[in-house]
Structure formats: structure tokens, C-alpha cells
Amino acid sequence: MEFNSSWVKGWTEAINADRASQHNGRHFNGSFTIASDDQRYTLHVRDGCVHSVVENGGALEPSTFTLAAAKEVWEKLFAPDPEPMYQALFATIGAGVMVVEGDLQLLFQQMLTLSDWVRVGRCQNGTPTVAEDPPELADYQAIGRYVNVTVDDVSHKVFYFEAGEGVPVLCQHTAGNENRQWRHLLEDRELTKKYRFVAYDLPAHGKSDPPSSGEFFESDTPLKSDWVTRFVVALSEALALERPIFLGCSIGGVIACHLADKYPEKFSALIGMAGGLSTQGFHHDWWIDPHVNAPMMLPGVVDAVMPPGISRRDREINRMCQSAHPITMRNDLYLWGFDNSDPERASRIDANKVPLYLFAGEFDFTCPPELVEQTARDIGEGVHYEMLNGLGHFPMSENYALFRPILLKTLADIEQRTGRQEAA
Predict the structure, then answer these.
(1) Would the pTM count as exceeding 0.85?
(2) Non-local CB neighbours of 126 within 8 Å, separated by 6+ positions
């Protein structure tokens, strides 16, 4: 393809004919500009349809915001099978190869719609490679239960799924998410012969209730390292787990590092994915802005941190798993954006006390491989680091077939290093 006026014309015509773009963007009204080297295209949108495109409009041409990047960046973004960090508009912005200027409100309002628009543009240039949907099971083995967990004299009614027998593995979801992210792992009939997987919802996430204190909507309660690490230990004790393996993703990857710092003796091993030291950003008020529908924004954000070629079904469910209240999402990201900034934490972690495994998704701009690799270097001896090729911020739920061999290898290494083996 060549990103020029002819291509833009064909793209906007395809947008106006695309069912998903029209369905998700039905309330998209406004104007924005795409800048490519010395060319500018201002798109005027009414009810989700591109009403007109003005090429190289002057300074008075109405435009709420501008997305500016080199022509090469636009062409990489619209490639049928884009390379890492070009899988979505928000990914290119986060990776620093695209600049956004102007009022961001419309951009956040229409994050999902713009994700659909990028998909349409890719289809104009070829047929994207998409994995097959995972097989649908005839029955399911995961069982849901509740347990009371007390931290600081406050009781929390915590929901969890569990499946299997043997070595206990605590599975921590990502920010604003729920234990449904572990659906493939919980139904892995071979692994559950040897491991007891416990995938829980943090308080005020998924099916877990807010704290019994009743102050959820009355005060700002950001997620902090001290509380969440003590919560994980208290949950383990409430379930009578003996030195479980901890497996966490995103904020769960951050928590894995913090547990290594504070409670290494409580765990057989710690596995952190898509989390490192230190992470930054994303704790902002866009999540709770009344002019932005956060549940509609989130699927577009999710698309930006996942690989482009995952199955239709896995993409659909990953988009929907972000079911926590927007306040909860904002609270979680305090841990990510602020309470993970201690510059001395890495030096306090001794990976000889507990095996520590850190993984980074190739397509994850929020916690890129170089950040996680640097975390492993800063901690030093005993840490295993690996980049997950073809995966992004949610490896366990994006493409389980691709993730599973890495997990098998990791669990086997933990068994060899700890000598722990509990058959069902």
C-alpha cells in the first residue's frame, strides 16, 4: 500500500460500509486530522460515518485532535499483519512513533471505534492472519466458590475458581479484570492432574464484593503494594495453601516482584508476566470521566496491547473481561503508575530465596520486553527472563496454545529447582 489520498478515500468508504464500525461508532460525531509527513487529512464524522475528508485544510479547518506520524508509520499500522508496537493506534502512540495533539476526550470516547477503523484499513491491504477459535468444550471442570479474607480487620468476600489437585497455584488477574482470564488454564485437563489452580477476583472485581467496610464509593482507595501483598498472603492462608506458586499478569506481574521483596518465604515460586520494576502511567481520571464511557473505551485499549492475529473468540472475550467498576480500574493503576516506583526494590529482592520468573509480551507497549529484561538484570542472579514471541499483555488468554509450552517449561523448572511434586 501507499498511504495517500487515494488510499484514504477507499479506506473511509470501507469504514462507512463496515458493520462493526457503524455499530460501535454510532455516536461518533466530530472531526480529527491524520497527518503524514507533509500531508494532512481531516475527517469529518457524523453518527459514525465519515461524511467528508478535507485534504490539507488550512488553520481554520475544524479538528478536535491530530494524529501525526511519518508515512512509514501509517503504512506499518495498516499492514495486514503488523509488526510489534504497530498493532493499534494507541500502541503506536505509546511506543512513541505517533504523536497526538489537541483535545483527547474524543479520542478516548472512540477508542473502540478507531480500533475497528484500523482493522478495516488492514483488510483493504490484504487478508490478515487470524488464529482459529479455541475448541468449545462439552463440559467444564472449574468450580466457583467464596472465601472470607481478612486484612486490617476488614473482611472481604472473595470469589475464586479452582480446578485440579496437587501443587497449589494462585492466579492473579490484570488491572480492572477478573479470574475469567484464566479460563483456558482452568480447563487444561493434563495440567490439573498435577496442579491445583486457584484464580481469584480481587475485592470489588468480578464476582468479589467490595470491602465489608462499605466505603467503596465514599473514599479514594488506590491499590497499594503493602495492602495487596498482605491480601495475597492472607488469601493463601484462608485457603490453607502451603507455599503456593504465584502466577500473576500485569499488576499481577508487579505483585510477583513485590512478593519477592516482602514475602519470599511464603511461596514456592513467583511468576510475573507483563510486569516489571518500575512501570509508569495509566493512573488518570479518563477512567472515571463522565464524558467517557470507560467500558466502551477499554476494548480499544485492550486491542492496543494484544497481538493482531489472535482468534476472533479470544479477542472478543478479552475485550469483555474488563468488567470491574471504572473506579476499580483507576485504583488498580495506582499500583502500576505510582506505588511501583521504589528505586531500591530490585536491590532488595534475592531470587535465591524464591525462584522468580519474568516474562514480557512482544506486542505489549505498556510493559515492553526491554523494561522487563532490565528488571531481571537489576535484580540479578536467579531470575529467569524471557520474551513471549507472538503474545502481548494477556498471554494466558490471548492464545493459550502459544502460551502453554512456556508455562509447561516454567512449571517443570520450578519442580526441578524446588523438588516439589504433588501428584493428584
Answers:
(1) yes
(2) 79, 80
